[in-house]
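Input (structure):
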């Protein structure tokens, strides 16, 4: 037995070599598997679904629209996606930067939203919204507030900042408004100034412009431009309905155009929807508060015209 051991000394036992080779192959194989997986994950244009992911979250993270992402991958918006599933990313997708941890401040004595906003160089409306507050919310010493990173409200609402501000800053009493009434001007062109003059001189309205808001159609005003009237800023009753009782509780919006002859423009409808959204929120109303002149005073007028669809406006409001 001793001789045998000596005889084999220095020679590699054949079984050992095989084991080493198998081990090496396994190592190479797992390395290539890793790099393949790594390649997939790191490959531009492809995303591997992680646990807890949703299409919406992935789209947001990559700065693409959820419908584009779904379409590219032959998915329906409500399809279930599974961890490990590979999704193609639409062109132009970039990994959005991870949001930094929210910056917070503690309210001191005599602080108010305006002061804090100014101190941190953010818009006071954004500050309020980031904290689920309105401009007239009371804040208390010791309360912690999140300082928004960017223009929070601007992302959520396509309304221009001046209009948003006018809506937020008007001294709206709780329960002040019950309806929001949509009108057309029944003219092909129009401006708030001309309407104001007409309402003062011809209709003898001392508060002028009968509506709270006017939305332009590109003729006289910019297409989709929203004009905020004094009746809104000062929370005065409208002059847009024949009933004083209804004027008292109805916000009036006039879209420039004759919608018996042509449809409202796409931009007018987009502005209308954004405006309605903001007004419903500000006035504490539900979408069923939105109606038209002819619906609230049946048989009296065709306003806002046969080509205006209240139904599609309401559908837009409900889908948001
Ligand atoms: Zn009308």
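Output (sequence):
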């Amino acid at each position: 037995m001793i001789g045998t051991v000596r005889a084999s000394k220095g020679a590699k036992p054949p079984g050992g070599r095989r084991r080493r080779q198998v081990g090496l192959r396994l190592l190479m194989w797992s390395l290539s598997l890793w790099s393949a997986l790594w390649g997939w994950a790191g490959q531009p244009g492809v995303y591997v679904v992680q646990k807890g992911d949703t299409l919406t979250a992935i789209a947001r993270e990559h700065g693409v629209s959820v419908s584009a992402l779904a379409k590219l991958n032959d998915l329906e918006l409500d399809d279930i996606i599974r961890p490990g599933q590979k999704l193609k990313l639409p062109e132009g997708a970039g990994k959005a930067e991870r949001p930094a941890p929210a910056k917070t401040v503690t309210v001191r004595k005599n602080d108010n939203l305006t002061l804090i906003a100014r101190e941190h160089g953010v818009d006071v409306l954004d500050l309020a919204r980031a904290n689920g507050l309105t401009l007239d919310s009371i804040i208390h010493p010791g309360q912690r507030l999140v300082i928004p990173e960017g223009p929070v409200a601007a992302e959520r609402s396509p309304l221009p900042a001046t209009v948003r501000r006018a809506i937020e800053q008007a001294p709206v009493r709780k329960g002040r408004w019950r309806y929001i009434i949509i009108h057309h001007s029944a003219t092909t062109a129009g401006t708030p100034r001309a309407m104001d003059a007409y309402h003062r001189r011809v209709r003898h309205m001392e508060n002028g412009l009968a509506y709270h808001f006017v939305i332009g159609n590109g003729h006289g005003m910019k297409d989709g431009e929203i004009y905020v009237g004094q009746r809104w800023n000062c929370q005065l009753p409208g002059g847009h309905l024949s009933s004083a009782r209804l004027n008292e509780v109805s916000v009036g919006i006039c879209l420039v155009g004759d919608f018996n002859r042509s449809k409202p423009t796409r931009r007018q409808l987009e502005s209308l929807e954004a405006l309605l959204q903001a007004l419903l929120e500000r006035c504490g109303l539900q979408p069923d508060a939105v109606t038209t002149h002819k619906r609230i005073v049946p048989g009296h007028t065709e306003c806002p015209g046969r080509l205006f669809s209240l139904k599609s406006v309401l559908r837009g409001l409900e889908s948001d």
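Notes: The mean pLDDT is 84. The pocket of zinc ion is lined by residues 183, 293, 301, 303 (CB under 6 Å).
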